[in-house]
Amino acid sequence: MKNEYIPFPAVIEDVRRETFDTKTFRVRFQDKELAGSFKYKQGQFMEVSVFGKGEAPISITSSPSRKDFLEFTIRAAGSVTKSIHNLKKGDCLHLRGPYGNAFPFEELKGKNIYFIAGGIGLAPLRSLINMVFDSRKDFRHIKLLYGAKTPDELCFKNELETWKKIPDTEVWLTVDKPCDGWGCRVGVVTELWKDTHIHPDNATAILCGPPIMMKFVIMKLAESGFKDKDIIMTLERYMKCGIGKCGHCNIGEKFICVDGPVFDYEQVKQLPHKEGVF
Asked: pLDDT for 24-56, tens place per residue?
């Protein structure tokens, strides 16, 4: 019988610095059979551990359409994530999962898609973004609206430039505090409504970021005419066990680690309390 609590070792193949406190780790399972057969869905997460330090739930930021490796974009915020940041190429992480549900994919085909993110909130969306771009002909117009505190705190800078060049795709950026030479908008991400037309026709908005950001983005999307079911988000809560046993991520009858972390706003509005959500 499989023990859900036993993690599997994975070797770090590459470490890329995104910001002053955020790195992307590319890993591959040590077990070659597992590495070849492992499957996950866009938007799922894994429990990532360092022996002797603990484990933390981390979104898989690589895309299922790109095989044989996994990527995790991790901000050094607590003892576990700081320990992960101390690791280097050739070291081992331990992984269990994948857990949670997924962003839609087949349901988005033929639609206009708005990706809206704040800070490290782009990391969970990146899995779906690259999956969509790997099947670009199946989707209509794509817009990415992305904000951060400063230009240095924007993640995936090289990919942002690559995405801008993809046909029928727009990338709009904003920061709270600009530096010399910053040529994009200044302000919160909802300021980007001034730069591009946001229209609900045949469209789905997919967002992730700090709770306060998502609160005001949802308000703007509603003002723009989006229906609740067409606003999709991934929620953040402390998902300690990952399998709905410990209760740390419980909201009413829902467990974010099992029933989520992906919800549409129609579902979120039915949650009894939104503390820690918005």
From this structure: 999 999 999 888 889 999 999 999 999 999 999
Q: Crossing angle of helices 157-164/122-133, nearest 10°?
A: 40
Q: pTM of the entire structure?
A: 0.94
How many other CB atoms are there within 10 angstroms of residue 204's CB atom? 21
Distance CA 208, CA 117 (A): 5
- The structure tokens 């492992």 sit at 38
107 pLDDT exceeds 90?
yes
Beta-carbon contacts of residue 210 (< 8 Å; ≥ 6 apart): 118, 119, 121
Question: Residue 247's pLDDT is what?
Answer: 82
Q: Is 109 helix (H, G, I), strand (E, B) or coil?
A: coil
C-alpha–C-alpha distance, residues 26 and 47, integer Å:
15
Q: Which residue has the tokens 């700081």?
A: 82
- The SS3 of residue 42 is coil
Distance CA 99, CA 277 (A): 19
Place of tokens 């090289």: 158
Cβ atoms of residues 217 and 265 within 8 Å: no
Query: How many C-beta atoms lie closer than 10 Å to residue 240's C-beta?
Result: 17
Angle of CA points 125, 177, 172, to nearest 5° = 40
Q: What is the pLDDT of residue 1?
A: 58
Catalogue the E-assigned strands of 30-176.
45-50, 54-59, 70-75, 92-99, 112-118, 142-148, 169-175
**How far are the Cα atoms of 9, 37, 55, 70, 97 from residue 31, in angstroms, in the given order?**
8, 10, 20, 14, 15
Q: CA-CA distance, 217 to 191, in Å (whole number)?
A: 10
Q: What is the pLDDT of residues 180-200, one digit of tens each?
A: 888 888 999 999 999 999 999
